Amino acid sequence: MIHTYSNTIRRKEMEAVLTCMVDEKIGPGDMNTKMIQTAKELMGFDGAVALRSPALAIEYALKALDLPKESGIVLSALAPAYQILTVERLGYKAFVADVEEETGLMTLESTEECIKKGGRLIILAESMGVLPDIKKFIELGVPVIEDISHSALAYYPFDEADASAKKAAPKPQEPAAAGEENKPSVPLGRRAGMYGVYTILGMEDRDIITAGGGALLIAPKRNEWTVLKHLAEAAPSTDFMPDMNAALAFVELKEYNRNEKVRRELFALFSRAVMVGKNKTYTRAQDEGSTIYSFPLVLNSGFKDAKAYAQKKNIEIRQAYENSIIALRQEELSRDCMCANSLLLRCAMVPLYPLLGQKDAAQIVKVLSTII
User: For 271-325, how does the pLDDT look when each residue is reduced to its tens digit (9 = 90+)?
Assistant: First the structure.
């Protein structure tokens, strides 16, 4: 069976984690710091802390922003369910925005409606590696936290207005592919995550860069980093990512270019296969303008039949948003979030990861070109 999800764990990743175990450095320590520094070099942010979970990252971001309790927070209906559970647990009110069928991203119209109802902060989930028109969300006038768990190391389009900011900011680099020297990139624009007041880079098992669990909470600019740094200095060590996890994330960051190259090749192959049928995938920017996070397939018909057909061909497909807010609160939200509800029922996740062999990829292509 070709499984939907698979972590890309090679010998380098295993050796990094094993070294921490042999050296008995498994709690938060030097590797945590080293991983953050590597991410900083690649993305160009001012500072970050590595925490034990994305939920904890939200909690620290809200503390840093000093957002009053019971304030409204706008979330995407297709964001992971932990976001609404965390927001409500912390005493805030969640407003859930609908999405576009072409991208799976929050619509400006629905987001504006949520702000009119009392939303004072947006957590903008860049689902499936597709980037939003970020400046239009910034222009809505409330702070934005970017969630780049699927879109890490993607680029926004270049904008001349960013030129002065680029001169002052650390210069991001491209992660080196295996056997290549790490060299400065030729940026298209700012990296994903560099527009928000804070940014969450989840590193759970199904995120684009995994630590096996945890998250980076990133402060793109100095003022926000100063506040976050003070909070981190007073935090208990149990809130920070252990070195074993950080070691895995460190290698994943270093190997990103190699892995992304393979993912792009597979994505192009799968996209051509889909073109012959009635199903489709999301609209996205080409080249570095998006990150390839698996292969979301928006079905023309129901998920159940597609799943059964794929299973006969020894391929597992799953609902792309099985762990989303709309999945958790479907009865409550389906009327106001009709597009998100439709994508919950019709969007399948097709296996796409660097460790897929040629034989398995060819089998997936056959299924994609024949699935009804």
Answer: 999 998 899 999 988 777 899 999 999 999 889 999 999 999 999 999 999 999 9
Please state, in angstroms and rounded to a whole number, the distance separating the CA atoms of residues 7 and 339.
30
Report pLDDT digits (tens) over 107-117: 999 999 999 99
Picking from 185, 200, 179, the residue whose alpha carbon sits closest to that of residue 62 is 200
Q: If we measure between CA atoms, which residue out of 15, 2, 13, 4 comes closest to residue 259?
A: 13
Query: Which phi and psi angles does 319 have, rounded to 5°?
Result: -65, 130
pTM as predicted: 0.92
Eight-class DSSP state of 191: B
Helix (H, G, I), strand (E, B) or coil at 49: strand
∠ CA 133-77-309, rounded to 5°: 100
Q: Of the candidates 212, 198, 295, which has an alpha carbon nearest to the alpha carbon of residue 251?
A: 212
Q: Which two tokens stand for residue 231?
A: 């909070």
Amino acid at 116: K
Tell me how far apart the alpha carbons of residues 84 and 68 are, in angstroms, rounded to a whole number: 17
320's tokens: 């792309």
Question: Under DSSP, is residue 330 helix (H, G, I), strand (E, B) or coil?
Answer: helix
Phi, psi of 106 (to 5 degrees): -55, 140
Asked whether 20 and 367 are in contact (CB, 8 A), the reply is: no
Per-residue CA distances from 237 to 51, 153, 248 (Å): 10, 28, 19
Q: In this structure, are residues 112 and 140 in contact, taking their beta carbons and an 8 Å threshold?
A: yes
Residue 365, CB half-sphere, CA atoms under 13 Å: how many?
16
Q: Which two tokens stand for residue 79?
A: 């964001």
195 within 8 A of 220, measured Cβ to Cβ:
yes
